[in-house]
Amino acid sequence: MITFTEAQILAWVSPLVWPFLRVLALFGAMPVLAQRAVPMRLRVALAFLIAFCAQATLPPMPVIALDSPAAFLAVLQQVLIGVSLGFAVRIVFAAIELAGEIIGLQMGLNFAGFFDPATGGQTTAVSRFFGVSVSWLFIVINGHLLLIAAVTQSFQAFPVGPEPFAFLRSLQPQAWGAEIFRLGLWIALPLVGMLLFTNLVLGIISRVAQQMNIFSIGFPITLSVGLLGVLLTLPMMEAPFTMALEKMLAQFQ
User: What is the percent of the chain where pLDDT is above 90?
Assistant: First the structure.
């Protein structure tokens, strides 16, 4: 009769369970895969597959009894690191959507608001368009592969240990909020400048030719210039998005 001891079972399970929990927490917080349209069974299966395939590159995992307080702290650490990694990617997506909010505000399209099923809140047309575009761009540039590489390498930077909050001292995630405004304003600045120049021209026209109804022609002109600017600047979205994504993921490597 074949028998197994508890120490043997823990030695077999430990190298798989901690990466599985960290990857699963990442899939529950990252954009695209964290949407309601993605079934939970698919996330669990992908997390298990990635944890199993990454065994050759992962460092040795500590053997912790699953019914001990140290196991609870280790589980908490994996969940926090995985959620932090997904939150770092969401910061980049939020910055792109903030740029769309600012551009839509200058164009006058912020009146076109609708329900966003991904976030469960209200969003505007330009912000939603930027969000969908950057989601496709995330897949095209193999951003999901960058995330998998980052979560695998995070076991070198933040190994499994008894202190679940130790990584927060080096990451400082509370300072990531400034990245939203910095990157969002940087992306929206060319279009904001273009629309500001358009409004200045319309203001000069209203002073020179006062018989013209500037309110009736100002909105279509501003809207047309804004849509043209979005069309011209959209192909250049890849460079700042890729740079910001790599900068955020480098903190976990």
Answer: 0
Indicate the angle between helix axes 125-140 and 238-249, nearest 10 degrees: 70
Which residues does 230 contact at the CB level (< 8 Å), separation at least 6? Answer: 103, 126, 129, 191
Q: Are 95 and 179 in contact, with CB atoms under 8 Å apart?
A: yes
**What tokens were used for 246?**
């790599």
- Residue pLDDT, tens place only, 56-93: 888 888 777 777 787 788 888 888 888 888 888 888 88
Is 135 in contact with 241 (CB distance < 8 Å)? Answer: no
C-alpha to C-alpha distance for 98 and 101, rounded to whole angstroms: 5
Alpha-helical segments (H) within 108-176: 125-140, 143-157, 167-171
Task: Supply the pLDDT for residue 45.
Answer: 87
Segments in the chain forming alpha helices (H): 6-29, 40-53, 69-107, 125-140, 143-157, 167-171, 177-208, 214-233, 238-249
Assess contact for 153 and 23: CB atoms under 8 A. Answer: no
pLDDT at 121: 64
Separation between Cα atoms, residue 250 and residue 253, nearest integer Å: 5
Q: What is the mean pLDDT of residues 129-152?
A: 85
List Cα–Cα distances, 117 to 83, 114, 139, 248, in angstroms. Answer: 21, 10, 20, 26
Q: Looking at the whole model, is its pTM more than 0.85?
A: no
